[in-house]
Write a structure and sequence with these properties.
The structure holds three protein chains of three kinds. By secondary structure, chain A is an all-alpha fold. Chain A is about 70% helix and about 0% strand. The longest helix of chain A is centred in the N-terminal third of the chain and has 34 residues, at about 65-95. By secondary structure, chain C is α+β, with helices and mostly antiparallel strands. Chain C folds into two domains: about 5-230, 3-Layer(aba) Sandwich (Rossmann fold); about 240-350, no CATH class. Chain C has helices at about 45-50, 95-105, 110-120, 135-150, 165-185, 195-200, 220-225, 230-235; strands spanning about 5-10, 20-25, 30-35, 60-65, 65, 80, 155-160, 185-190, 205-210, 210-215, 240-245, 250-255, 255-260, 270-275, 280, 290-295, 300-310, 320-325, 335-340, 345-350. In chain C, a hairpin with a 4-residue loop joins strand 11 (about 240-245) and strand 12. Chain C is elongated, with a radius of gyration of 24 Å. The relative contact order of chain C is 0.12. The chains are: A mainly alpha, B mainly alpha, C alpha+beta. Chains in contact: A-B, A-C. At the A-B interface, helix 1, helix 3, helix 4, helix 5 and helix 7 of A face helix 1, helix 4, helix 5, helix 6 and helix 9 of B.
Chain lengths: ~290, ~280, ~350
């Protein structure tokens, strides 16, 4: 807190009011509604509802389809996180090494951040399109009997690929920033102490990037959980048979398409807890900052 | 000498592959968008631009029914722009005011209100989609710009960002201002805001991109085509394509993706330094 | 034997800036040589080229008669102490000191012995298991030195290692470094911009200016026999007094000042006369008149600054003429001092190229 503060009585309330107001109306009230609705069972026309306690949770949340979505979400998140972090790290390290063309490389690797997930999804979708998609044809040509409409693995492949593609830019930017935070003299001292660049990377650079890496892991998992909705909605839509459903997508699907308000709300509440866990984890482990 | 050269070559190779990996899809999208649909159907995706650039983009942008059933891409572009700018500006204004209140004032509800703001981090849109829709619908704000922008701007990230920044401003500044007789409002306007110029720019840039790229919220609360943003139009075009019908207009689909991508990419490229700064600072 | 030989070293940066223009140098084994010069003169660049941290545009560097231009830094058998210590933040002191040896494949027990011995020598034995961020500046600097010592290299390189320490610590560390080097007998190159460090540490001193060596030799030699105007004004505290003069065949003249005792100087060129403050005296006859502006009392001696009457000073940065006197000499401000000096102790330089004529 600041050492010196104003002690006026009304101004701060005035300033903070807009945000608080919006939060109450559009965040807290809907969240409360979601919790309330998760205990209800509505009929098909939304005319009457029954308070059923935790039945929605039992029915929807721990059903097979939910568990399938949960399983996929976990695998998906892990894959996307590791792949996009790995690729971005490699590119960041290399981009930090070169002198000639450095800024061009950096710019071209960065701008993909600006592409919206659904746009990336559509592009990817068309590239995997059976009729016109080069990637589709290419994969089939090299012997992979590729069909993402029918095969769960292939569908997963498409979704993971597009998600990783989109996320590389963000990780790249943060890794670059992290790399530039390592004092030049430390890496120079390392050149005098260690001949092999690879070894230097793993013993000096990578440990010093640990805070960034940790932080990006949380960001990426959050991304994979939530922001990939746009990608899935424009590519597989959870097909085939719910194999590429993420938990978020399922909430949307059950709620808006399936009109299962109760079940969808129950899932929302569960998601809330997952977010809570992720946030606590982030603040506990990251904010403590692995600092040297 | 030998060692150095090999290393340099491999480094550049890796980087070039990376660049191609990241850029090729968009280039192909653009190139394909400039061809006639028959070409695309026959030969698949195109790597080189064709001759239909003006024709396609003209249809998509200006002709009613050119890409969607009614609305033109130009109209959707306008909607996206309003969303992007409105979101960015709204976010900055709200967060700055709230952060200022929290950092510079000692008032009774400060701590609980701070936690209220913090709570928004636990409640991403995806978790409260349906009730949010119900609330907005109940307020009669469906299909309005207000309803589109306002619910999005109150999340904590902007406030935390400015809070962190304000805390780094030296106390002496406020002390000197008070000695000069500045009221809280004057201090905010005359001193704090000018000091924050770079930060504000950075956040505006990032938030413009974020706002422009909003998907889930616009998807559920715009029901009429004329209120679609470009990004939502993408979704709809997918439906149209998927439904097959006559000649699938792939080139228009790609054209739409290019249009949806161009403004935020341009912003990121032109304001690259601010963008990076904003991204790195705001996520901390 | 670790002699160092530099031949025709040039360094030009890709943007065209020339850092080093033609340096030739021979350093004997066991010598402690100091590179000194103003910021940006190229002394650090030279050091870094020897370390392998900068590319050499042209010329050769040999260590013990082995050309090392293309040898990677880790293979050159040189160790470096950086200005900001450059300790590995995520390793303990022990880790920092063992890292280089570990990479060279030494057995653990041997590494341990070497590390502990160096730690004892530098009095950091108790800190071996601490992290760098738990140490003070002086302690960190000793760890940095320990890291260099453990390697038992052929050459020690120091890049302004004491700049970040406070004054008192600097003096202490200076002595320690000199003592250490003498004990270990390793060829050392030390870069600094601090004249006192340079004069006290060096066996051999190289004054570097704009990428060239102005003069190289034992410190006292540079003090008593500067080869150029630059060396004369760079070495010597307080700075040498410089007066623009012209020779008329018999005397050096500037305005009202006319000084005899010089001969054989060119008459049609601008010259600069250099007189060290400690070679001035108040004996008769008076050759120069000084109007006193300031008296600095330094305890055992006084520095009297004033404006030279009737002549202009050659140095744009300094406007005051300096006279070193003993502690009892306390003239009034504004009074006039009459000063004498011995022409044989003065230097005359050509103004255009700084070359020393007398």
């Amino acid at each position: 807190m600041k050492r010196v503060q104003f002690e006026h009585s009304s101004i701060p309330y005035l300033f903070i009011a807009p945000q608080i107001l919006i939060i109450f109306v559009f965040f807290l009230w809907p969240a409360a509604q979601a919790i309330y609705q998760s205990f209800l069972l509505e009929d098909a026309f939304g005319l009457s509802s029954q308070f059923v306690w935790f039945r929605n949770y039992a029915d929807t949340v721990f059903s097979d389809s939910w568990l399938q979505a949960a399983g996929f979400t976990v695998i998906f998140s892990v894959l996307v996180t590791f792949l996009s972090i790995g690729i971005a790290l490699l590119l960041a390290v290399k981009a930090n090494e070169v002198i000639r063309g450095a800024s061009t490389y950096k710019t071209t690797l960065m701008w993909a951040y600006a592409i919206a997930p659904p746009v990336a999804g559509l592009m990817g979708n068309l590239m995997f399109h059976p009729l016109i998609g080069d990637l589709y044809k290419f994969l089939n040509a090299i012997g992979w009997d590729f069909d993402h409409k029918l095969n769960a693995f292939d569908a997963g492949f498409v979704v993971v690929l597009i998600s990783v593609w989109k996320q590389v830019s963000v990780n790249f930017i943060f890794f670059l920033s992290g790399l530039q935070g390592i004092p030049k003299s430390v890496t120079e001292a390392a050149t005098l102490d260690c001949k092999s660049p690879t070894r230097r990377f793993w013993t000096i650079v990578f440990p010093l990037l640990a805070p960034t890496t940790f932080f990006l892991m949380v960001i990426n998992i959050t991304y994979a959980f939530f922001e990939t909705f746009g990608i899935i909605d424009t590519t597989t839509r959870g097909a085939p048979g719910g194999a590429t459903n993420t938990l978020v997508f399922k909430v949307f699907q059950d709620g808006f398409r399936g009109a299962d308000l109760g079940g969808s709300s129950a899932q929302s509440v569960v998601l809330m807890f997952i977010v809570l866990a992720l946030t606590v984890f982030q603040f506990r482990f990251i904010e403590r900052k692995v600092h040297y | 000498m030998q060692n150095i050269n090999w290393r340099l070559i491999s480094t550049h190779t890796i980087l070039i592959i990376g660049v191609l990996f990241m850029s090729l899809p968009v280039w192909v999208a653009f190139a394909t968008s400039t061809h006639a649909p028959e070409t695309i159907l026959r030969n698949g995706l195109q790597f080189w631009p064709g001759g239909h650039f003006f024709e396609t983009y003209n249809e998509v942008l200006f002709v009613e029914g050119g890409v969607m059933k009614k609305v033109t891409a130009l109209a959707m572009l306008k909607n996206s722009l309003i969303l992007g700018v409105g979101f960015a500006v709204g976010k900055v204004v709200i967060s700055m005011l709230a952060a200022y209140a929290i950092v510079y004032f000692r008032f009774r509800l400060a701590v609980p209100l701070f936690w209220v703001i913090f709570m928004t981090l636990l409640l991403p849109l995806e978790v409260r989609i349906i009730p949010s829709f119900q609330v907005v619908s109940g307020l009669g704000l469906l299909d309005t710009h207000t309803g589109l922008i306002v619910p999005l701007i109150a999340s904590a990230t902007g406030t935390f960002f400015f809070r962190q920044f304000f805390r780094s401003v030296p106390d002496e500044l406020l002390e000197a201002a008070r000695l000069d007789g500045a009221t809280p409002w004057r201090f905010f306007v005359d001193i704090l805001i000018p000091l924050s110029k770079t930060m504000i720019a950075a956040i505006l840039i990032i938030m413009f991109v974020v706002g422009w790229n909003q998907y889930l919220w616009p998807l559920i609360m715009t029901t009429k085509e004329e209120n679609y943003t470009l990004v939502i139009g993408i979704k709809q075009i997918y439906q149209i394509l998927a439904e097959g019908g006559e000649l699938p207009q792939y080139q228009k689909a790609f054209a739409l993706t290019i249009l949806a991508t161009l403004p935020p990419v341009l912003v990121v490229l032109v304001f690259q330094n601010w963008f990076v700064k904003g991204l790195v600072e705001s996520e901390k | 034997m670790a002699s160092i030989e530099l031949t025709g070293i040039h360094k030009t940066y890709p943007n065209g800036a020339i850092a080093v223009r033609g340096v030739d140098m021979n350093i004997d084994d066991g010598n402690f040589i100091v590179f000194v010069g103003p910021s940006g003169c190229g002394k650090s660049t030279l050091l870094r080229m020897i370390a392998g941290l900068e590319n050499i545009t042209s010329g050769t560097i040999k260590i013990s008669d082995r050309v090392i231009n293309d040898v990677s830094p880790a293979d050159r058998d040189v160790a470096m102490v950086f200005q900001n210590y450059a300790l590995y933040p995520h390793m303990s002191v022990r880790g920092n000191m063992s890292y280089g040896l570990k990479n060279r494949g030494l057995p653990k027990t041997e590494i341990n012995d070497k590390v502990e011995e160096a730690a004892k020598m530098l009095r950091i034995y108790d800190f071996l298991d601490r992290q760098p961020n738990q140490l003070s500046g002086g302690q960190r600097q000793r760890v940095a030195m320990g890291r260099a010592i453990v390697r038992e290299p052929k050459v020690f390189l120091f890049d302004e290692p004491l700049s970040n320490l406070d004054a008192k610590l600097r003096v202490q560390m200076r002595i320690e470094i000199k003592r250490l080097q003498r004990r270990m007998g390793v060829t050392s190159i030390y870069v600094t911009h601090d004249q006192t460090e340079a004069m006290t540490l060096a066996d051999s001193l190289a004054v570097i200016n704009q990428g060239k060596i102005e003069q190289m030799g034992p410190p006292i030699e540079l003090y008593e026999n500067p080869a150029t105007l630059f060396v004369a004004s760079f070495i010597g505290l307080p700075q040498i007094n410089l007066i623009n003069v012209r020779f008329d065949g018999k005397k050096l003249n500037n305005g009202e000042v006319s000084l005899g005792g010089f001969k054989g100087l060119p008459t049609d060129t601008d010259l600069v006369l250099g007189i060290r403050p400690d070679t001035l005296s108040e004996a008769k006859p008076a050759k120069l008149k000084l109007r006193v502006d300031l008296v600095e009392r330094h305890g055992a001696e006084n520095l009297i600054y004033g404006t030279l009457i009737g002549a202009d000073i050659a140095d744009e940065d300094a406007t005051e003429f300096c006279f070193k006197s003993d502690q009892h000499d306390l003239p009034d401000i504004g009074s006039t001092l009459k000063l004498n000096f011995d022409p044989k102790q003065a230097f005359v330089f050509k103004k255009s190229n700084g070359e020393r004529l007398v």
